[in-house]
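Cross-posting from the modeling subforum.

Setting up a comparison between two proteins and wanted a second pair of eyes on the formatting. Protein 1 (sequence, then structure tokens):
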Amino acid sequence: MIIAAALLTLVLAGLFFVGFKRLYTLSQQTKWLINYASWFDNRQPFLLFALMLGLLGCVLISTVVYYPLYSYNSAAAPFSDGKNIFWLTVFLTGMAFFGTQILLFYFSFRFRSKSASTASFFRGSSKLELTWTVVPAICFLGLFFWNQILWQRITSFKETDSVKIEVVGEQFNWKVRYGGHDHELGKTSFQLVSDTNPLGIDQTDSASLDDFMPVQMHVPKGRNVTLVLRSKDVIHSFYVPFFRTKMDAVPGMHTRMQFTALYSTAEMRELRNDPSFNYEIACAELCGRMHFAMKMILVVDEPEEFDAWYNQQESWVSELARNKLRLTTNAQYP
């Protein structure tokens, strides 16, 4: 609501100044408009200053309103390590934003056109140029190397005692596949993709026969989870807001990410005092007109609950055979 109001303010301001330019052009031909244009020209810097205060007010109000959405700790490791660098980046970019915008409006107001004023020549300052070049460069390099260290820690995969899950993105939903009782994902091929085999699973591979594809993704709390991501059409991005993590799913290649959930779904419901809370998987890459609907529920179970759920799942081969039998029976006995 507040963001929409800020955008509307910008649009109205733009239309206002465009209209004034047109009005000023007409005033050259119409005498009574000349006085009005002169009156407006004298007050334009003050209106510009008022616009700056309005915009900064919208930014500050939006920050206060939406702060709770970004103030929580990450519910997964190792992404919780990124909180400090996140807030440092917000602070530095915020300072740069407010500083440049305030100076921009100030100079527009301070050096506004006056009938008795004359412009002075300014050759430049090497010290000033060096300062605003070196300081941002140091900040950028510091953030860059800190990010590289953090990224190396995040992408250092550990396969020991890891739950491996395949995640496939397509317009406009997610599909997940588990390795079944042998905990090994079977082979796939895009040539095998069909209405009954949406992931192109190779049935000649014995490791694929016990794989299963649930409607919701389940992961155990406190155990390492490895995701193998791919896409069937365009670039998607696997994003869990409360984990503060995302990874692109790219057509024609496999990308991987790992995490360890720190809080179960039940624990998060208690912490947030929200019985309806669920972790949500979203797509963070604009992938088409139904991009907004590309969601999936992620359930974080206690380890014993996850094992019980895992052992109860029906393999995709058994589910396919059951569906075929049901369709055949319905056809014979309408």
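Protein 2 (same layout):
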Amino acid sequence: MDKSRFFSIIASARQGSQPAQPSADPEALRAVLAELPTEEVIEFVTEFTTQMIRLNRWSIWAAGYVIAGGMSDDGFHYFRSWLIGKGSYAVEQALTDPDGLAPYVDNPDVDNEGLEHVALEVLEQRGVRVDPRIAVDGLTDGEPTGEPFDENTVADLYPSLLG
């Protein structure tokens, strides 16, 4: 599945396309994925994993930390799901300039934990098990890339994201 198709599926699970509108709804995504052939749902899981890995950067964690007023490692994982649920523009914004994410923040609860699991649940109901943590094209979702941030000065890096 190419990135364009992936994000069109994500867009169909959102309540609009404006940046400040909520991240994709897991139940709406479930309804969309339920209509797709199994192979396409598997490809969706693979692309979701690829996007999660792309977003696994300290600079993006720092942005989420500022937005949420703190963020654990699990919180960072769910923040990346939230970003994916906001669509391709939010993902690309996070990758190029995390300080520019302010228009996408509809509230400081930047967590969409359920979004990642929906496709797996659809596959499980069909008797298929796919593990999204398996390396995608040699990439893994381990330690973030880039330079770690200092919790005491991170807000200085992203002034636009201060609530």
